[in-house]
Amino acid sequence: SITSRFQADFSYVAKYKWDLLVGRGMNMLILDAPSSLYPNHATGPNNSYLYLLLTSGILGLVGWGIFMHSLYLDSHFKPMLTFFLIASLFNNVMFYPFALLWILLVEATVPTSV
């Protein structure tokens, strides 16, 4: 459910606090997970924005926001980008390779005005 996802995401914020300024680094969240006898494949938050904040810090999140904003302003596919950005709030859609490749390829095929 959405509420359990938000609770899990807020637990990451409570856990890392000041590390959010500079981030923990890519693929470092798994090292902070408690060891268990059972496999646990939940290596990060469900929210793409929070994942970006945790791994690259505020600078990375702001840079990504500037990039996505410029992409949105020049886009002829605003509904598709809106869906992509909203879906990223509830799942880690932003970093699915095929979703990101799809967005970038669609945007690259749009003729630019000079």
Q: What Rg, in angstroms, do the CA atoms define?
A: 16 Å
> SSE string, helix = H, strand = E?
HHHH
Total beta strand runs = 0
Number of domains: 1
Shape: elongated
Reported for the largest beta sheet, the result is:
none
The helix-and-strand class reads mainly alpha
Termini Cα gap: 46 Å
- Poorly predicted regions are none
Give the % helix: 55-70%
**Number of DSSP helices?**
4
Mean pLDDT: 78
Bin the strand percentage. Answer: under 5%
Descriptive terms for the model:
114 residues, mainly alpha
Plain-language structure description:
This protein is mainly α and 114 residues long. It has one domain. It is 55% helix and 0% strand. The protein contains four helices and no strands. The longest helix is centred in the middle third of the chain and has 26 residues, at 48-73. It is elongated, with a radius of gyration of 16 Å. The model has no long low-confidence stretch (mean pLDDT 78).
Provide the fold topology:
Elements: H1 2-16, H2 48-73, H3 78-87, H4 97-108
Question: Could you write a compact summary of the structure shown?
Answer:
The protein is 55% helix and 0% strand. The chain has 114 residues and is an all-alpha fold. It is elongated and about 55 Å long.
